[in-house]
Design a protein that fits this description.
- The structure is a single chain.
- By secondary structure, the protein is of the alpha+beta class.
- It is 29% helix and 29% strand.
- It has a 5-stranded antiparallel beta sheet with strand order 5-4-7-8-9, with helices on one face.
- A hairpin with a 2-residue loop joins strand 4 and strand 5.
Length: 171
């Protein structure tokens, strides 16, 4: 009657193959997790602007997106009580730092940067420059529709309003 089971050589080959696969996967795991946290942070900022516009429109009251010194951003709405109501917070990601804060009135520091969203769907606008090593991203909030977007690189100046067929002037 033949014996059943695996030989010692077969078991060692399987263990060696699994060890090699783990050695390939494990070093990329931390960078993959950091990349995911970074994407979640930027997506959270963009979602906050969408929520702020919707809340301002439905409540009829302005909503503010406020930066803090630790790199987090908070959505607040003023109410009849003395303290503003905190609606949502997006925490900073380790390694990414906000280096420049701009609004319609010029450069600001982290403690004074805020964007106000109004009930007609517009906002006061502004942008924040983020850096991680040599990589640069800009979070920009549009004045016309309050939409926020994260772009790779430095923010350009407000684009000129374009008319039909790409003309720069209205005919």
């Amino acid at each position: 009657m033949p014996k059943r089971g695996f030989t010692l050589i077969e078991v060692l080959v399987v263990i060696t193959v699994l060890a090699l696969a783990a050695a390939i996967v494990v070093p990329s795991l931390p960078s993959m997790l950091k990349s995911q946290r970074k994407r979640d942070f930027f997506a959270g900022l963009e979602r906050m602007t969408f929520e702020a516009v919707n809340i301002a429109k439905t409540s009829g009251q302005p909503v503010r997106l406020i930066a803090s010194e630790n790199g987090s951003f908070q959505l607040q709405q003023d109410n009849a009580e003395a303290e503003p109501q905190s609606l949502r917070t997006v925490s900073a990601v380790e390694g990414i730092s906000a280096t420049a804060f701009n609004s319609g009135s010029g450069s600001l520091d982290a403690n004074s940067w805020e964007v106000t969203f109004y009930r007609d769907g517009t906002s006061s606008g502004g942008n924040v420059r983020f850096e991680e090593g040599s990589a640069v991203w800009t979070f920009r909030v549009d004045k016309k529709d309050g939409r926020g977007e994260v772009i790779s690189g430095d923010a350009e100046e407000e684009p000129e309003e374009r008319w039909e067929a790409g003309d720069r002037i209205q005919r």
